[in-house]
Amino acid sequence: MDADTPAPRRRARRRPAGPDRVSARDVARHAGVSIATVSRVLNDSGPVADRVRRLVAQAIDELGYTPNAAARALVRSRSETIGAVVPTLENATFAIAVEALQSRLRQAGYTLLLASSGYDRSNESTQVRALLARGVEGVMVVGGAHDPEIEQLCAARGVPLVQTWTLRPDVACVGFDNRAVGRQLADYLLDLGHRQIGVVAGVTRGNDRAAERVAGITEALAARGLDLPREQLIERPYRIAEGQIGLRALLASEPRPTAVICGNDLLAFGAMLEARKRGIRVPDELSIAGIDDLEFAADLDPPLTTIRVPAEEIGRRSAEYLIDRLDGQTVATVTEVATSLIVRGSTGPAPQRGDRE
């Protein structure tokens, strides 16, 4: 009897106790076909008559069979999974990017495996190794400063790697110039007449994006003959409460800043809360600006001036880079996304001396 010719239907056997105990052999027996035919249907690895395909599909449905993904990966020599490592799952901007990344990958038939590094390069390297051990076909990471092992391991295995939230001419990346973002915010405030500018930055150790933003601010100040005193550069983790702590430290410095640049919107939200708690009028007495343009930024009172970062676009275009690479297409190595300054009510002209008394 030909493998694709169904045998006479036997009386249905008693269904196994649960889906986990149903095997491809059970499906073949239930459909009255060979196990090789079931394999061809599951893996789309050979011609199968439509009538036979329907019988197998019916048997799968009746038995509640779930194909073993690992076994299918071995058959296809592909895992159809992509790995991503982000610094934290607390930051909404990373969550937005991951959602867009996963959505686009799902459209192309890939599953996303996600890990968090906690802003620790050693841990990031460990997570990438673990993803590679599970057979991921592509990897996304955040930032441009990593343990060299990551690039080496991916290259050795032929696994495409894309770095995000950064621009590097020598690697595949989807992002923007963080130093330019810092310069843009500082120049905007300087043009408003501010000369005492404080900074509540993210922790720069292990975070090249935070360090580049501070470098951009420092460059803009230096271009106008100003500096950024150490006591007016406060580094805090990216949390609202930490923004409050950062502003308290800045207000204790002399001279007190008339404007504060925050390393992201979460820190800026905290700074705004602390200013209100202390009765400091924003922006009349103190201007505050952030980076990201999170959804809540426009709903504050006053609404937050910030740099809009297209996190969703970063996630989607990262997915498209990996998909195209795996499809063997020629793709651009560097993809720059556009950021933009969104001016709202939390910033204004520098107060005159009398206005602050």
Task: Give your account of this protein's structure.
- The protein has 357 residues and is an alpha/beta fold.
- The chain folds into three domains: 19-75, lambda repressor-like DNA-binding domains (434 Repressor (Amino-terminal Domain), Orthogonal Bundle); 80-176 and 311-326, 3-Layer(aba) Sandwich (Rossmann fold); 178-308 and 341-356, Response regulator (Rossmann fold, 3-Layer(aba) Sandwich).
- The chain has helices at residues 24-31, 35-43, 50-63, 69-76, 92-107, 121-133, 148-157, 178-191, 208-223, 240-251, 265-277, 311-326; strands at residues 81-86, 111-116, 139-142, 161-164, 173-175, 197-201, 233-235, 259-262, 287-292, 305-308, 334-336, 340-342.
- The strands form two sheets. Strands 2-1-3-4-5-11 form a six-stranded parallel sheet, sandwiched between helices.
- Helix 5 (92-107) runs parallel beside helix 12 (311-326).
- Residues 7-19 have low confidence and may be disordered.
Q: Would you tell me the structural class of the helices and strands?
A: alpha/beta
Integer count of domains: 3
**Topology, number of strands:** 12
Main beta sheet: 6 strands, parallel
Element-by-element helix/strand order: HHHHEHEHEHEEHEHEHEHEEHEE
Gap between N and C termini: 98 Å
- Into which percent range does the helicity of residues fall? 40-55%
The share of residues in extended strands comes to 5-15%
Query: What is the CATH topology of the largest domain?
Result: Rossmann fold
pLDDT < 50 stretches: 7-19
CATH homologous group name of the largest domain: Response regulator
How many alpha or pi helices? 12
* CATH architectural grouping of the largest domain: 3-Layer(aba) Sandwich
Mean pLDDT: 89
Specify the CATH class of the largest domain: Alpha Beta
Radius of gyration: 27 Å
Strand arrangement across the biggest beta sheet: 2-1-3-4-5-11
Tell the overall outline.
Answer: elongated
